[in-house]
# Entry
Amino acid sequence: MPELAEVEVYRRLAEQVVGRVVSEVVAPDSWYLKRGLTAAVAKAAVEGRPVTGARRTGKLLLLDTGSDGPVLGLRFGMSGRLLVDGTAGLTDLSHASNRELEAWDRFALVFEGGGDLRMRDPRRLGGVELDPEEARLGPDALTVTPSGLARALAASAAPLKARLMDQARLAGVGNLAADELLWRAGLDPARPAGSLSPAELRRLHRYVRTTLADLLAKGGSHTGELMDERRPGGICPKDGTALLRRTVGGRTTFSCPRHQV
DNA sequence: CCGGATGTTCACCT
DNA sequence: GAGGTGAACATCCG
# Structure
């Protein structure tokens, strides 16, 4: 589920806990703690500290704990959700069931005075780390500049879609958003990333930003126009051509063989 | 029953 | 070095 749009919704939800003081860290699943983090270390690092900021770069949600405190980095994988005070940031799930089990709660912050922030993740593909290397991520796709995008694609033989989803070069574009924005931009996902003309680069930059903003405004990465056609027999909503289904950059990819060139 | 799914990381090839 | 592939995680759905 979570791509940039979903994580931005989570970030806005997390703003509700800014100003609250962490009374307890609940980390029952050691597998969910990444890069050597342990429950004991996490507790010692943030218990008693206030949450002072809720930021986001790409799909990484960052919680600040004061100028002298660590940063908590939250990743949601494909099935992770955020709940604050028992309320989920997203209830409109594309095809996931609405089954909810507390057994899937992998990490939580409990606050003084009540309330909590929980990560609920059935598949355990997400995780929590302390002081994530934010510099390892490329510029956020929602606000990337033309030159930032050009750098992400520069002189590469890799497929355009693979580069757009490379979080170290451009942060936030997931599989669904990549297909949607390339479809809107009329660009073939398998084109070598370095083969775009200056005009195509400008066009792509415009569609990266507007598509992600649009998906965010509609409430999720599954709200694109291409979503309903991501199935056998799907057709291009623009021209009715049978969509092409293939693997590009290791991920299932749908595109229109007529207008995406 | 089988295959695939909105993500990331890593080992192992070419 | 640059890409590509498959595995792992655990659950649900068609």
User: Anything to note?
Assistant: The longest helix of chain A spans residues 198-218. Chain A has two domains: 4-135, 138-255. Confidence is low (pLDDT under 50) at residues 92-97 of chain A.
